Structures are given as C-alpha cells and as structure tokens.
Amino acid sequence: LYWAVKSDDGYTFAYYYSISYLLDCVDGYAARALNQESRLGYYLDMVIDRVSSCLCLHFAAKEVLSGRTCFGNAAAPLVAAILRILIVVVEIVAHSAVMFLSEVLGVHQKQMGYDYAIVRKYLSDKRYLFWACLSFELFGLSIIVNITPVVLISLPGFVFRAAANICRLLAILSLQESKKWSAGSSEEERAPRERVRRGSSDRLGDH
Predict the structure, then answer these.
(1) How far is CA 133 from CA 27, 47, 157, 161, 182, in A?
(2) Contact between residue 95 and residue 54 where contact means Cβ atoms under 8 Å apart
(3) Which of 4, 49, 178, 188 could form a disulfide with 17 if both were Cys (CB 3.0 to 4.6 A apart)?
(4) Under 8 Å between Cβ of 140 and 60
(5) Vertex 116, ends 203 and 151: CA angle to 5°?
(6) Residue 106 Ramachandran class (φ > 0 left, ψ -120 to 50 alpha, else beta)
(7) Confidence at residue 207, expressed as pLDDT on a 0 to 100 scale
C-alpha cells in the first residue's frame, strides 16, 4: 500500500494495490496453515482492509475530478462527492458500527439489517458477497486507470455493496433494531456470537 500511495500514475497504483489485494487474499490461509492466527492479527487485518478501501475510493475520486474518466467534467464533482461520502458512511462508519456491535457487544452480524432483502442476499449468499467485494475493487481501480468497460461492468456490484452496507447502518441506527437486540439479550433467545475466523479478510467477503 505504501508504494501504491507513493506512485506517480494510475497504473503503478493499480499494480501495487493489486499485489496488496492478492496478498490479502492468501494471508489468512497462510496464518491458519502455519498456526500463526491471533486476535491482534485479526483486528489489524480489518484495519488494513478499511485503509485500503478508503485509499482506493480517495484516488478514484481524485481521478474523476481530473476529468479524464468516462464521467466527464460535468458529472465529475458529483461522482467524486459520492465516492468521498462512501468513504465515510460505508468504509468507516458502517463497518466500524458492525464490528463494534459484533465484537464488543456480541450482537450477531445477521441481526443487523437482516430484514432488508439486499442485506440477506449480501450476507447469506457468498456468491453475492464475492461479486460485491470484487466489483468494489474493480470499480475503483478501473476508474484510476480509466478503463471504461470495466467501470460499467463493475458498477452494479459496487452499488449493491454500498446499498447493503448503508441498509445495515440504517438498521443499526433504528430504534426498532435496538429493541430486537434487547429482546434477544437472554442466553436462550440471543443468537450465538460469531466465531472469529482469525486471519481472514472481509475484502474476500468473510464479513
């Protein structure tokens, strides 16, 4: 990621970012195979994932503002603003809220927004989850290197991922959802806390 940020052009950024992504895909398997899993590694992996996602959206927004992308000059300010809003709302606030509730308060992740059909698809079907996460990476990188066909192909998955996470955040903030957690707070009613799969990465769709 350091070399990606220090790069002078979009292709160099995409090259180093892709290496980071591929390493992130295998580090969990390596940690489990070598019996090097740890709680610290699990949390560090989540933090790095969020940093990576934020950087990708940030540099994509900068490229959009340059006017060289398929969005053109007229739509550039709006598209860049949306990307930067997603950095805050989805990558920071929504993911932080989910992890705080699941890791600190022990709320099962499927209790957060599962009433929404899009969240059920996002969480219960790994094909949708993988498609959404891969589309997110491809959308940001294809904007940075200005490959319009890939931007258009990955846009639906990118929107799906953003919408699912925003729905989860809305559910978390709603009083109705809070009442569900309170009602299910007894040992008999409360969903079991999810087992941490240390060394895994939500960039692959594990969360």
Answers:
(1) 17, 16, 8, 7, 31
(2) no
(3) 4
(4) yes
(5) 45
(6) left
(7) 43
Which residues have C-beta within 8 Å of that of residue 1, sequence separation ≥ 6?
16, 17, 20, 48, 51, 52, 55
Tell me how far apart the alpha carbons of residues 136 and 56 are, in angstroms, rounded to a whole number: 9
Give residue-wise pLDDT tens across range 141-176: 999 999 999 999 999 999 999 999 999 999 988 855
Instruction: Count, in order, helices (H) and strands (E) of the chain.
Output: 9, 0
Residue 124 token pair: 């219960």
Write the single-letter amino acid at 191. A
pTM, to two decimals = 0.81
Size of the chain, expressed as the number of residues it contains? 207
151 in Cβ contact with 68 (< 8 Å): no
- Residue 118 CA to its chain's centroid (Å): 15
Q: How many beta carbons lie within 10 A of that of residue 148, not counting itself?
A: 12
